[in-house]
């Protein structure tokens, strides 16, 4: 193969790589037989947790004997390891050493293939140097049209773990780096295949943290918006606008079908993420979206059992995965050179299981359910017995076939999931998987008797008028690229041609693209849209409704009646589209039209979606109305909800109950009514900052590792912790960014992930109050009718109050029988709503319908100090601050027999001081009820 190199170092590296590959192939012939001398010498010492008993319950029965290392195969030999359905074949079109750790591919208008090379990904089990600027985007061509991409250049070099590559017009791409916020456009201005111009495209697009928890796959949809994983927003194709969307819950993979619906691929869940409806209408909860048994993969025997979830995730004796745990890359096949029954089918890789799945979407009464095509046969579309096969991206190619990106790598889970002492780390070291790096292959999937399309695209050199013809191409890639290039050219001279195509073309898909191309050019006319709305084909009518939304947003509200009329349509799909459009555009009196549809149409989809629109579910099952929170707490909850839906829900479930991976097995613990979550905030903060591994109170979870989130800001962590602590039937104090900063300092020396049994001993526990505590106060009054006016009521939900306006030097004191080491105090001070006296009848300026104003009084201490004493005479101050509706006070461990809280602030309102549900915290372990 031929390659264009930019420097001598590249040439040297390829030479070394070839030498290493040659040596590897020789090593592959070395026999390793259990019991032989060379077998006993292979493999490093296994790194079990310190003090771990190999015969203990977490390790007993696991084969930890040294094994022969897993060695790479040549592409030709790897091809022999594929287990394919009859008639299919896999042929390599670009392989190592030309490319290094490919993670995704895409094609420009001339069919040149851009390869996202994550050269720093998991070069060892600790992910050392993962954020070094060594990744790149290369560009490859098949100049002699023999089906192999032989000529390459490095288009953009020295990137920090780049997130995606999107070809963007002539000789340009969009991409961004990890832990960054900006998307840049890189352009090759002199035609040498190397970008020499960098321009800002859009900002506020990224996030920081674990590289697997950052956005990826910027994708140009048929609707001319750019979509990505994680981000709950979309950006206009030129970066000029941004709109919020539902949370897509995806990790690595975005694609679209022939109707322009965006499909998102989940990561840790191992299954597709959101796919029911276009995500800009919001995320709707639909039960049973996956057919029974969908979570069970049927990979070929790989024997090495290197699954992060441990033995619970492994099918014995073949060592394959028994429940999906990782998804990557996706494609709704839209090509022409594979069997027709594959068109419209959804494909994605499960690289942990070493499989590519074929999914059949079945739509019933407007609701889609996904079926693994080969589930009944206990097979998959593509399988491999090569442990290094790692399918991470699927792509409909310009030649009409499907390309599969194979990272061909030893470790496929990032370093925070492979800590020392973990099961997966033991398996990595047992088989020396950390040595299988710096490789990668791109495969073409073919079918017997169907040759690839050898027409080489030259769209970058064509005029807008020439490009229009490609909107009629049966291959979806050609249509997508022609639409993009026409819009970027901005040539409106072809508008009449596009209008004619939208009206009369025999190819329904060409009509879709013609209409959306007009929309992208800003040339879509209301009269054309209404013509298409009146067509007999429901799919075309739906496209017209969607396209009209742009006109409505730009001020043409004449479509209101059209939407309301479509909501009454007997076709369920059309009616569904109409009610989603009515809701998203906030059309006046939309609720009336939607309710009428729900009452009249009993189709499952109408009932599910219509009722969720009319009665929006409280996010996460929150039992507390947002009105119970202060304005700043409400903002924190909103930010936390976005974080949860974008990131946490994949493992912990949309409803916080934990994602089910198989009967009785959850990906991660449930948050619902979780005593650990709503207990002392040290627990959640330590887990977020340093991570958690192992069983929790003896219960195993498929995820087995909660990775640290310390890379995120203090506010980010405070928001998500506060959200979880006040959602899912939990009610606890809010966390501030100052709390997070303080905890960062405290746990700075913790270098490894926490083990639960270790962690729980560090968490403050509640010191239970009892009748021999002497609780006194400067003022006391019942908080409920018939209640007792005793300060001790502060420790229950009856509560204590001063009963009068707060004033400086009001105090509340507790004397305990013995000295105790305390570390904190929590209590609640619920706000009180009072209504002003009603005006007398006939008073000037009033009417009988006038309602007096309502005032909310905050009953927390305006300001406070906390003092402690061992004898009731000598006092020391341990804390000071301002009260909140849920006040949490932390201080350094201190011995105390007496605790005194003094109100020191002043205010112009008449609010009393109230406290209920008070807790004193001491160091020690709390026995939580099993979840």
TrEMBL record:
Residues 635-728 form the Cytochrome c domain. One of its GO terms (molecular function) is electron transfer activity. Pfam families: Cytochrom_C, DUF7133. Keywords: Heme, Iron, Metal-binding. Residues 761-920 form the F5/8 type C domain. InterPro entries: 6-blade_b-propeller_TolB-like, ARM-like, ARM-type_fold, Cyt_c-like_dom, Cyt_c-like_dom_sf, DUF7133, FA58C, Galactose-bd-like_sf. The keyword Lipoprotein does not apply. This is Mono/diheme cytochrome c family protein. It comes from Albibacterium bauzanense.
């Amino acid at each position: 193969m031929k390659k264009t190199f930019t420097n001598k170092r590249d040439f040297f590296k390829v030479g070394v790589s070839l030498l290493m590959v040659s040596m590897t192939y020789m090593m592959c012939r070395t026999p390793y037989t259990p019991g032989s001398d060379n077998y006993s010498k292979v493999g490093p010492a296994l790194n079990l947790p310190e003090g771990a008993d190999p015969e203990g319950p977490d390790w007993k029965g696991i084969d930890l004997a040294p094994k022969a290392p897993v060695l790479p195969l040549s592409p030709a030999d790897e091809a022999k390891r594929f287990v394919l359905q009859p008639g299919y074949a896999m042929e390599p079109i670009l392989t190592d050493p030309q490319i290094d750790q490919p993670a995704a591919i895409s094609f420009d208008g001339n069919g040149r293939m851009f390869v996202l090379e994550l050269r720093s990904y998991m070069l060892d089990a600790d992910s050392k140097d993962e954020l070094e600027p060594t990744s790149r985007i290369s560009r490859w061509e098949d100049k002699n049209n023999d089906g192999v991409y032989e000529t390459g250049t490095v288009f953009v070099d020295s990137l920090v773990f780049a997130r995606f590559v999107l070809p963007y017009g002539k000789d340009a791409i969009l991409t961004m780096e990890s832990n960054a916020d900006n998307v840049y456009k890189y352009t090759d201005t002199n035609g040498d295949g190397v970008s020499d111009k960098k321009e800002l495209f859009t900002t506020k697009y990224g996030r920081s943290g674990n590289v697997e928890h950052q956005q990826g796959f910027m994708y140009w949809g048929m609707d001319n918006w750019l979509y990505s994983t994680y981000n709950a927003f979309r950006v206009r194709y030129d970066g000029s606008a941004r709109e919020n969307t539902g949370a897509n819950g995806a990790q690595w993979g975005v694609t679209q079908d022939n109707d322009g619906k965006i499909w998102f691929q989940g990561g840790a869940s191992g299954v597709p993420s959101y796919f029911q409806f276009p995500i800009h209408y919001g995320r709707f909860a639909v039960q049973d979206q996956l057919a029974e048994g969908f979570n069970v993969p049927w990979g070929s025997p790989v024997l090495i059992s290197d699954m992060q979830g441990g033995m619970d995730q492994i099918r014995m004796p073949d060592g394959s995965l028994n429940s999906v745990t990782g998804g990557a890359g996706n494609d709704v096949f839209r090509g022409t050179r594979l069997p027709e029954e594959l068109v419209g089918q959804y494909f994605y890789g499960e690289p942990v299981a070493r499989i590519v799945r074929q999914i059949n979407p079945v739509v019933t009464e407007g609701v889609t359910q996904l079926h693994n095509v080969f589930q009944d046969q206990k097979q998959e579309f593509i399988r491999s017995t090569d442990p290094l096969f790692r399918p991470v991206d699927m792509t409909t190619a310009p030649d009409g076939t499907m390309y599969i990106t194979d990272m061909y790598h030893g470790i496929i889970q990032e370093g925070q999931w492979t800590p020392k002492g973990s099961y997966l780390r033991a398996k990595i070291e047992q088989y020396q998987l950390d040595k299988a790096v710096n490789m990668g292959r791109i495969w073409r999937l073919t079918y017997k008797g169907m040759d690839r399309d050898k027409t080489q695209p030259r769209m970058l050199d064509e005029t807008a008028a020439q490009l229009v013809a490609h909107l009629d191409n049966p291959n979806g890639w050609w249509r997508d690229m022609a639409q993009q290039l026409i819009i970027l050219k901005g040539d409106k001279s072809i508008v009449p041609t596009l209008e004619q195509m939208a009206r009369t073309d025999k190819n329904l898909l060409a009509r879709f693209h013609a209409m959306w191309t007009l929309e992208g050019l800003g040339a879509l006319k209301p009269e054309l849209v209404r013509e298409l709305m009146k067509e007999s084909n429901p799919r075309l009518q739906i496209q017209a409704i969607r396209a009209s939304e742009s006109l409505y947003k730009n001020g043409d509200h004449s479509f209101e009646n059209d939407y309301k009329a479509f909501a009454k349509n007997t076709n369920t799909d059309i009616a569904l589209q109409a009610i989603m459009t009515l809701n998203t555009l906030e059309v006046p009196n939309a609720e009336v039209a939607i309710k009428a549809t729900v009452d009249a149409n009993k189709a499952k989809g109408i009932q599910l979606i219509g009722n969720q629109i009319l009665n929006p579910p409280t996010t996460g099952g929150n039992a507390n109305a947002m009105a119970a929170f202060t304005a700043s707490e409400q903002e924190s909850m909103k930010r936390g909800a976005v974080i949860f839906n974008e990131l946490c829900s994949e493992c912990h479930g949309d409803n916080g109950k934990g994602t089910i991976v198989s009967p009785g097995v959850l990906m991660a613990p449930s948050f619902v009514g979780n005593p650990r979550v709503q207990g002392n905030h040290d627990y959640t903060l330590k887990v977020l900052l340093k991570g958690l591994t192992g069983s929790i109170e003896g219960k195993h979870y498929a995820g087995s590792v909660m990775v640290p989130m310390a890379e995120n800001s203090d506010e980010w962590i405070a928001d998500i912790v506060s959200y979880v602590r006040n959602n899912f039937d939990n009610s606890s104090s809010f966390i501030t960014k100052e709390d997070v900063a303080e905890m960062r300092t405290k746990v700075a020396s913790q270098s490894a992930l926490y083990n639960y049994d270790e962690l729980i001993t560090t968490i403050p526990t509640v010191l239970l109050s009892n009748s021999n505590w002497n609780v006194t106060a400067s003022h006391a009054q019942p908080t409920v009718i018939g209640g007792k006016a005793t300060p001790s009521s502060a420790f229950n939900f009856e509560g204590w109050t001063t009963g009068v306006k707060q004033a400086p030097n009001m105090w509340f004191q507790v004397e305990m029988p013995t000295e105790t080491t305390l570390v904190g105090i929590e209590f609640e001070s619920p706000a009180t709503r009072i209504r002003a006296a009603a005006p007398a009848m006939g008073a000037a300026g009033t009417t009988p319908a006038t309602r007096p104003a309502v005032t909310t009084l905050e009953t927390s201490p305006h300001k406070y100090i906390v003092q402690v004493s061992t004898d009731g005479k000598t006092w020391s101050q341990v804390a000071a601050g301002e009260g909140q509706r849920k006040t949490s006070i932390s201080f350094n461990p201190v011995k105390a027999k007496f605790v005194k809280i003094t109100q020191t602030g002043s205010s112009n309102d008449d609010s009393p001081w109230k406290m209920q549900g008070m807790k004193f915290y001491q160091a020690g372990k709390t026995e939580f009820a099993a979840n």
